[in-house]
Amino acid sequence: MDERKSKTKSTFLLRVLPQLILVGILSLHLVIGAFIFQCLDEELAKLRFLDVVFFEFITISTIGYGNISPTNDASRLFTIFFSIIGIPLLIVTLANFGKYLTKFYWKFQDFLRSEDAKSKLASDADMPIWVILFLYCSTMLFGSMWIDHNRNHFTVDDIYFGFISFATVGFGDTVPKTDKISEIIFAALYLGWGVVLTTILFNVFNNYFHRVYYLGRRFKGHRDVDVFIGGECITVSQITSLVAQQFHAAPREVRTILQELDQLMEKSVETNQ
């Protein structure tokens, strides 16, 4: 029993550690970047340090409100360099948070003894769309009450500001107020969480559209194809049945995953992370 607990803890740490490292690198990137920005740009130097960090976050999240921007050639060139590193770093970090949130949902369902939770965990399935929409609407409601911006509260402006920001469109006509340090922190957390939810939502929509693309298209003759594993000959159909049995999934569900090998490899990498 103790060995099982220690193994579970070590597995958990191995999965969480890369994300913690990413968060640490991202934080260091923002702090060092803010210091350099204030050294290069006199206008940015007049701002509070956290204001510059928030400007960096808005930049690498590609929201880009435009209310704060570099004002000389040196800081503009540094913005390019900073963004080349920061944008993919933030995307990976937030995408991982979205993946962990999805896995947490299915683990919670498994804890509640949901019938298909284990198979969903095994197949790295998406979170149900109604759950995502509920979280999305709840976040919007939270934002309308606690996140201050330069438009009217408790109106369409709240929804508009939230979606335009979460989708990283950021026209700049509606921006969050960041007069207080608490407002900066809340705004950054709110926007980061919103981008995570939007990533999950768009990924689900993308998978639905992908299914439409494959409507009426099936693999033919693949079930009886022989594959040699460990010196033994086994058919694809037998492999499908064994995998389905191992992960308590229907063979049809396994075949659906096998429709595109690129997706299968991507899911395998994500599962092992």
From TrEMBL:
GO molecular function, one term: potassium ion leak channel activity
Family: Belongs to the two pore domain potassium channel (TC 1.A.1.8) family.
Transmembrane is among the record's keywords: yes
UniProt main location, coarse: membrane
Protein name as catalogued: Potassium channel domain-containing protein
InterPro entries: 2pore_dom_K_chnl (IPR003280), K_chnl_dom (IPR013099)
Lineage of origin: Eukaryota, Metazoa, Ecdysozoa, Nematoda, Chromadorea
GO biological process: stabilization of membrane potential
Assigned keywords, A-Z: Ion channel, Ion transport, Membrane, Transmembrane, Transmembrane helix, Transport
Membrane spanning residue stretches: 12-37, 49-68, 77-97, 127-147, 154-172, 184-209
UniProt subcellular location: Membrane
Native species: Caenorhabditis angaria
Membrane topology of this protein: Multi-pass membrane protein
Keyword Transmembrane helix listed: yes
Record GO cellular component, one term: plasma membrane
Superkingdom field: Eukaryota
PANTHER family on file: POTASSIUM CHANNEL DOMAIN-CONTAINING PROTEIN, POTASSIUM CHANNEL, SUBFAMILY K
